[in-house]
Design goal:
By secondary structure, the chain is mainly alpha-helical. Helix content is about 55%, strand content about 10%. The strands form two sheets. A two-stranded antiparallel ribbon has the order 1-2. The N and C termini lie far apart (about 55 Å).
Length: about 220
Protein backbone atom coordinates (compact mmCIF):
# COMPACT_ATOMS: atom_id res chain seq x y z
CA UNK A 1 0.00 0.00 0.00
CA UNK A 2 1.11 3.57 -0.63
CA UNK A 3 1.87 5.85 2.27
CA UNK A 4 -0.49 8.68 3.13
CA UNK A 5 1.27 12.00 3.72
CA UNK A 6 -0.06 14.22 6.48
CA UNK A 7 0.88 17.84 6.99
CA UNK A 8 0.91 19.67 10.29
CA UNK A 9 2.05 23.29 9.94
CA UNK A 10 5.44 23.21 8.27
CA UNK A 11 6.16 19.72 9.54
CA UNK A 12 5.48 16.79 7.23
CA UNK A 13 4.78 13.41 8.75
CA UNK A 14 4.18 10.05 7.13
CA UNK A 15 1.51 7.64 8.19
CA UNK A 16 0.67 4.31 6.63
CA UNK A 17 -3.00 3.63 5.90
CA UNK A 18 -4.76 0.77 7.60
CA UNK A 19 -4.55 -2.66 6.04
CA UNK A 20 -8.26 -2.90 5.22
CA UNK A 21 -8.12 -6.48 3.96
CA UNK A 22 -6.49 -7.67 7.17
CA UNK A 23 -8.84 -5.50 9.22
CA UNK A 24 -11.82 -7.29 7.63
CA UNK A 25 -10.28 -10.72 8.26
CA UNK A 26 -9.61 -9.89 11.91
CA UNK A 27 -13.15 -8.57 12.37
CA UNK A 28 -14.47 -12.00 11.36
CA UNK A 29 -11.98 -13.80 13.61
CA UNK A 30 -13.00 -11.58 16.52
CA UNK A 31 -16.67 -12.33 15.85
CA UNK A 32 -15.99 -16.08 15.65
CA UNK A 33 -14.02 -15.94 18.90
CA UNK A 34 -16.89 -14.30 20.78
CA UNK A 35 -20.03 -15.88 19.37
CA UNK A 36 -20.10 -19.16 21.33
CA UNK A 37 -18.99 -17.37 24.48
CA UNK A 38 -21.92 -15.01 24.01
CA UNK A 39 -24.26 -18.02 23.98
CA UNK A 40 -22.92 -19.00 27.40
CA UNK A 41 -23.79 -15.68 29.01
CA UNK A 42 -26.75 -15.82 31.37
CA UNK A 43 -27.68 -12.29 30.30
CA UNK A 44 -28.22 -13.21 26.63
CA UNK A 45 -31.72 -12.41 25.40
CA UNK A 46 -33.90 -15.12 23.83
CA UNK A 47 -33.94 -13.10 20.61
CA UNK A 48 -30.15 -12.90 20.39
CA UNK A 49 -29.83 -16.58 21.27
CA UNK A 50 -32.22 -17.53 18.46
CA UNK A 51 -30.31 -15.26 16.07
CA UNK A 52 -26.99 -16.99 16.82
CA UNK A 53 -28.52 -20.47 16.58
CA UNK A 54 -29.91 -19.62 13.15
CA UNK A 55 -26.69 -17.96 11.95
CA UNK A 56 -24.49 -20.90 13.00
CA UNK A 57 -27.12 -23.57 12.15
CA UNK A 58 -26.84 -25.09 15.62
CA UNK A 59 -28.72 -28.14 16.83
CA UNK A 60 -30.17 -28.50 20.35
CA UNK A 61 -27.16 -30.65 21.22
CA UNK A 62 -24.80 -27.98 19.91
CA UNK A 63 -26.38 -25.41 22.20
CA UNK A 64 -26.42 -27.81 25.14
CA UNK A 65 -23.82 -30.44 25.91
CA UNK A 66 -21.95 -29.82 22.66
CA UNK A 67 -21.39 -26.09 23.11
CA UNK A 68 -17.98 -26.37 24.74
CA UNK A 69 -16.73 -28.57 21.89
CA UNK A 70 -18.06 -26.12 19.30
CA UNK A 71 -16.22 -23.31 21.04
CA UNK A 72 -13.00 -25.32 21.38
CA UNK A 73 -13.07 -26.31 17.71
CA UNK A 74 -13.58 -22.67 16.72
CA UNK A 75 -10.73 -21.59 19.01
CA UNK A 76 -8.37 -24.06 17.36
CA UNK A 77 -9.39 -22.88 13.91
CA UNK A 78 -8.86 -19.26 14.93
CA UNK A 79 -5.44 -20.04 16.37
CA UNK A 80 -4.25 -21.52 13.07
CA UNK A 81 -5.36 -18.34 11.31
CA UNK A 82 -3.75 -15.88 13.70
CA UNK A 83 -0.46 -17.77 13.82
CA UNK A 84 -0.23 -17.33 10.04
CA UNK A 85 -1.05 -13.64 10.46
CA UNK A 86 1.62 -13.21 13.14
CA UNK A 87 4.18 -14.98 10.98
CA UNK A 88 3.45 -12.58 8.12
CA UNK A 89 2.88 -9.27 9.92
CA UNK A 90 4.02 -9.58 13.51
CA UNK A 91 1.31 -8.37 15.89
CA UNK A 92 -1.42 -6.61 13.88
CA UNK A 93 -1.92 -3.64 16.16
CA UNK A 94 -3.82 -0.37 16.22
CA UNK A 95 -1.65 1.38 13.62
CA UNK A 96 -2.11 -1.51 11.17
CA UNK A 97 -5.78 -2.46 11.56
CA UNK A 98 -7.37 0.09 13.91
CA UNK A 99 -9.69 -0.67 16.82
CA UNK A 100 -11.27 -3.00 17.88
CA UNK A 101 -9.69 -5.29 15.27
CA UNK A 102 -6.34 -4.93 17.05
CA UNK A 103 -7.93 -6.92 19.91
CA UNK A 104 -8.69 -9.94 17.73
CA UNK A 105 -5.33 -11.74 17.87
CA UNK A 106 -5.07 -10.99 21.59
CA UNK A 107 -8.45 -12.66 22.19
CA UNK A 108 -7.48 -15.78 20.28
CA UNK A 109 -4.17 -16.13 22.13
CA UNK A 110 -5.88 -15.48 25.49
CA UNK A 111 -8.23 -18.38 24.76
CA UNK A 112 -5.45 -20.71 23.58
CA UNK A 113 -2.83 -22.93 25.24
CA UNK A 114 -0.07 -20.75 23.74
CA UNK A 115 -0.02 -17.76 26.08
CA UNK A 116 3.52 -18.61 27.19
CA UNK A 117 4.77 -18.59 23.59
CA UNK A 118 3.18 -15.33 22.52
CA UNK A 119 3.32 -13.35 25.78
CA UNK A 120 6.52 -11.49 24.76
CA UNK A 121 4.78 -10.44 21.52
CA UNK A 122 1.83 -9.08 23.52
CA UNK A 123 4.21 -7.21 25.83
CA UNK A 124 5.98 -5.65 22.85
CA UNK A 125 2.68 -4.62 21.24
CA UNK A 126 1.59 -3.04 24.52
CA UNK A 127 4.87 -1.16 24.96
CA UNK A 128 4.47 0.21 21.43
CA UNK A 129 0.88 1.38 22.21
CA UNK A 130 -0.60 -1.06 19.69
CA UNK A 131 -2.71 -2.64 22.46
CA UNK A 132 -4.20 -1.09 25.62
CA UNK A 133 -2.35 -1.92 28.82
CA UNK A 134 -5.38 -3.59 30.39
CA UNK A 135 -5.23 -6.41 27.81
CA UNK A 136 -1.60 -7.05 28.69
CA UNK A 137 -2.63 -7.08 32.36
CA UNK A 138 -5.35 -9.66 31.69
CA UNK A 139 -2.99 -11.97 29.86
CA UNK A 140 -0.35 -11.59 32.56
CA UNK A 141 -2.93 -12.53 35.20
CA UNK A 142 -3.98 -15.60 33.22
CA UNK A 143 -0.37 -16.62 32.70
CA UNK A 144 0.29 -16.33 36.44
CA UNK A 145 -2.84 -18.34 37.26
CA UNK A 146 -1.81 -21.11 34.86
CA UNK A 147 1.58 -21.13 36.60
CA UNK A 148 -0.21 -21.55 39.97
CA UNK A 149 0.94 -18.10 41.09
CA UNK A 150 -0.98 -15.13 42.50
CA UNK A 151 -2.44 -12.78 39.91
CA UNK A 152 -1.85 -9.03 40.09
CA UNK A 153 -4.84 -7.19 38.66
CA UNK A 154 -7.66 -9.53 39.70
CA UNK A 155 -8.95 -10.24 36.20
CA UNK A 156 -9.15 -14.02 36.38
CA UNK A 157 -12.10 -15.93 37.80
CA UNK A 158 -11.41 -19.62 38.31
CA UNK A 159 -14.04 -22.35 38.30
CA UNK A 160 -13.70 -25.80 39.83
CA UNK A 161 -16.15 -28.49 38.73
CA UNK A 162 -16.93 -31.37 41.09
CA UNK A 163 -19.57 -34.06 41.54
CA UNK A 164 -21.30 -34.58 44.88
CA UNK A 165 -23.94 -37.25 45.43
CA UNK A 166 -24.18 -37.69 41.68
CA UNK A 167 -24.82 -33.99 41.07
CA UNK A 168 -22.45 -31.59 39.31
CA UNK A 169 -21.33 -28.62 41.37
CA UNK A 170 -19.34 -25.55 40.37
CA UNK A 171 -17.27 -23.35 42.65
CA UNK A 172 -16.17 -20.09 41.06
CA UNK A 173 -13.91 -17.55 42.73
CA UNK A 174 -11.48 -14.77 41.92
CA UNK A 175 -8.05 -16.37 41.69
CA UNK A 176 -5.82 -15.20 44.59
CA UNK A 177 -4.38 -11.70 44.21
CA UNK A 178 -0.87 -10.72 45.22
CA UNK A 179 -1.88 -7.45 46.92
CA UNK A 180 -5.66 -7.59 47.45
CA UNK A 181 -5.74 -4.55 49.73
CA UNK A 182 -4.53 -2.25 46.95
CA UNK A 183 -5.92 -4.04 43.89
CA UNK A 184 -8.75 -1.56 43.26
CA UNK A 185 -6.31 1.34 43.09
CA UNK A 186 -4.11 -0.68 40.74
CA UNK A 187 -7.09 -1.61 38.57
CA UNK A 188 -8.16 2.02 38.27
CA UNK A 189 -4.66 3.12 37.26
CA UNK A 190 -4.44 0.29 34.71
CA UNK A 191 -7.57 1.11 32.73
CA UNK A 192 -10.19 -1.08 34.44
CA UNK A 193 -13.51 0.64 35.16
CA UNK A 194 -14.81 -1.79 37.79
CA UNK A 195 -13.67 -2.54 41.30
CA UNK A 196 -12.75 -6.14 42.07
CA UNK A 197 -16.07 -6.50 43.94
CA UNK A 198 -18.16 -5.23 41.01
CA UNK A 199 -16.11 -7.23 38.52
CA UNK A 200 -16.70 -10.48 40.41
CA UNK A 201 -20.43 -9.78 40.59
CA UNK A 202 -20.96 -8.51 37.04
CA UNK A 203 -18.64 -10.88 35.15
CA UNK A 204 -18.57 -13.98 37.34
CA UNK A 205 -21.94 -13.67 39.07
CA UNK A 206 -20.20 -14.23 42.41
CA UNK A 207 -19.36 -12.36 45.58
CA UNK A 208 -15.70 -11.45 45.86
CA UNK A 209 -13.88 -13.40 48.55
CA UNK A 210 -10.19 -13.29 49.32
CA UNK A 211 -8.49 -16.65 48.86
CA UNK A 212 -4.89 -17.37 49.67
CA UNK A 213 -2.85 -19.22 47.09
CA UNK A 214 -2.60 -22.17 49.46
CA UNK A 215 -6.41 -22.33 49.79
CA UNK A 216 -6.89 -22.14 46.00
CA UNK A 217 -4.40 -24.91 45.32
CA UNK A 218 -6.01 -27.09 47.99
CA UNK A 219 -9.39 -26.60 46.33
CA UNK A 220 -7.92 -27.66 43.01
CA UNK A 221 -6.63 -30.87 44.52
CA UNK A 222 -10.12 -31.79 45.73
CA UNK A 223 -11.85 -31.41 42.36
Amino acid sequence: MEEVLKFGGDKKTEEKPLNLELKKELAQIYKDDQIYRELMQSSITPERKAEIIKEKNLSKEDVGSGLIKKMDDQDQENLVKVEKIIEKYGYPGKSMVGEPENYAVWNVIQHSPKIEKYFPLIKKATDEKELPFRLYAMMLDRKLMYDNKEQIYGTQIHSIFTTKDGKAETLSFVWPIKDPDHVNELRKNSGFSKTIEDYAKDVGGIEYKKYTLKEALELQKKK
